[in-house]
C-alpha cells in the first residue's frame, strides 16, 4: 500500500486536528445547554444533547463521548437526575484537554 506524501499527511493531520477542535467547541456549547436543562429538569433537552454526543463523538475521535451520550439518553428517559448530572460531569471530563 502506498503511503501519502509527507505534505499530504501533514495537511490531513492538521485538518483533522481543526475538525476535532471545532467538535469540542460545539460540544462545550452543548454542555452549557445541558447544564441549563439539568437545572430546569428539562429531560427532553437532556435527551437531545445526549443524542448529539451519541451520534458524533466517535466520528471525531471521542468514542467515550458517544458511549456516554447513549447513557445520557437512557438516564434522561428515566428522568434520573443524579445519573444525568454524573454523566454530564463525565462528558465534560471526556472533552477536557489532556494535561
Low-confidence stretches: none
Percent strand equals: under 5%
Task: Characterize the overall form.
Answer: elongated
Report the count of strand segments: 0
What is the chain-wise order of helices and strands?
HHHH
Supply the number of helical segments. Answer: 4
Distance between the termini: 36 Å
Secondary-structure class: mainly alpha
Structural notes for this entry:
The protein is mostly helical and 99 residues long. The chain has a domain at 28-95. The protein is built from four helices and no strands. The protein has helices at 6-40, 43-56, 63-77, 81-95. Helix 2 runs antiparallel to helix 3 (63-77). The termini are far apart.
Task: Please provide a brief summary of the model.
With 99 residues, the protein is mostly helical. It has a domain at 28-95.
Break the fold down into its secondary structure elements and pairings.
Layout (H helix, E strand, L loop, with lengths): L5 H35 L2 H14 L6 H15 L3 H15 L4
Please supply descriptive tags for the structure shown above.
99 residues, 80% helix, mainly alpha
